[in-house]
């Protein structure tokens, strides 16, 4: 098997424990003064890349683990966290505060980064928890002409650049056999990311971080989607009340539960 050069894209999102609020103009979610962190699915992707190296899961070994992120200057926080977990270096495409890229734009930039970094394996979260698009990995595979294995819950490496990926589907599990180069998107059950210790965070500050601008890649990043309005979901309606056990039984029969 070829030595792995792994690229792991990560995104800075509102922390999963924070309840998002719609902004006053109804154009998006309020982000000012809100805690942000690494996208949980991307956190799993970083952990998987580092485990592949530490546990020597790939016969050819891991030559390099590079983190990628496109976001505002504050995105460096999640980039450094990813490097503290064990990645070697990072590429940060700086965007203005409040600016973002659509999934296709991210995929186009990633295509160029993959070519520049000579990556042969890209591991990324199956979706980000802010827009829940779940499109970037698939679009990147299409642009590169690579195989893809989405929503991975287990990854195994074999001989001859072969990779086996197990994914959960509605009816159970599905196993995919593919070859490098490959795109893998991660699901929640793939692993449990490690807790990053302070000494590793300090060491990560010395690791290489290359800064770039979107225009450095020479790709069309024009937006194709328009947000008309963002609103809170309608409140749930409460269930009807019953006076006694007999009323409950009657209601269940009416609903076909008995």
From TrEMBL:
Keywords of the record: Electron transport, Mitochondrion, Transport
Co-factor(s): FAD; AMP
Keyword Glycoprotein carried by entry: no
Free-text comment on the cofactor: Binds 1 FAD per dimer. Binds 1 AMP per subunit.
Gene Ontology biological process: amino acid catabolic process; fatty acid beta-oxidation using acyl-CoA dehydrogenase
Oligomeric and partner information: Heterodimer of an alpha and a beta subunit.
Purpose: The electron transfer flavoprotein serves as a specific electron acceptor for several dehydrogenases, including five acyl-CoA dehydrogenases, glutaryl-CoA and sarcosine dehydrogenase. It transfers the electrons to the main mitochondrial respiratory chain via ETF-ubiquinone oxidoreductase (ETF dehydrogenase).
Family: Belongs to the ETF beta-subunit/FixA family.
Name the UniProt record assigns to this protein: Probable electron transfer flavoprotein subunit beta
Annotated source species: Pseudallescheria apiosperma
Lineage: Eukaryota, Fungi, Dikarya, Ascomycota, Pezizomycotina
């Amino acid at each position: 098997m070829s030595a792995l050069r792994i690229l792991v894209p990560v995104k800075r999102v509102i922390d999963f424990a924070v309840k998002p609020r719609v902004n006053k103009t109804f154009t998006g979610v309020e982000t000012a003064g809100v805690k942000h962190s690494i996208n949980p699915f991307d956190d799993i992707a970083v952990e998987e890349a580092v485990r592949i190296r530490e546990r020597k899961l790939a016969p050819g070994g891991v030559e390099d683990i590079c983190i990628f992120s496109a976001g505002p200057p504050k995105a460096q926080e999640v980039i450094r966290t990813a490097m503290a977990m064990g990645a070697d270096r990072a590429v940060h495409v700086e965007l203005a505060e409040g600016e973002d890229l659509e999934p296709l734009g991210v995929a186009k930039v990633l295509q160029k980064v993959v070519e520049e970094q000579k990556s042969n394996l890209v591991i990324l979260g199956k979706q980000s928890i802010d827009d829940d698009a779940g499109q970037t990995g698939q679009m990147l595979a299409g642009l590169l002409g690579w195989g893809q294995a989405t929503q991975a819950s287990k990854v195994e490496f074999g001989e001859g650049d072969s990779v086996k990926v197990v994914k959960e589907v509605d009816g159970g599990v599905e196993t995919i056999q593919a070859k490098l180069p490959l795109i893998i998107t991660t699901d929640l059950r793939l692993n449990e990311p490690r807790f990053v210790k302070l000494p590793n965070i300090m060491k990560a500050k010395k690791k290489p971080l290359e800064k770039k601008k979107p225009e450095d890649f020479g790709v069309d990043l024009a937006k194709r989607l328009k947000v008309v309005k963002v609103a809170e979901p309608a409140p749930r309606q409460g269930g009807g009340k019953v006076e006694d056990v007999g009323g409950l039984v009657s209601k269940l029969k009416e609903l076909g539960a008995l």
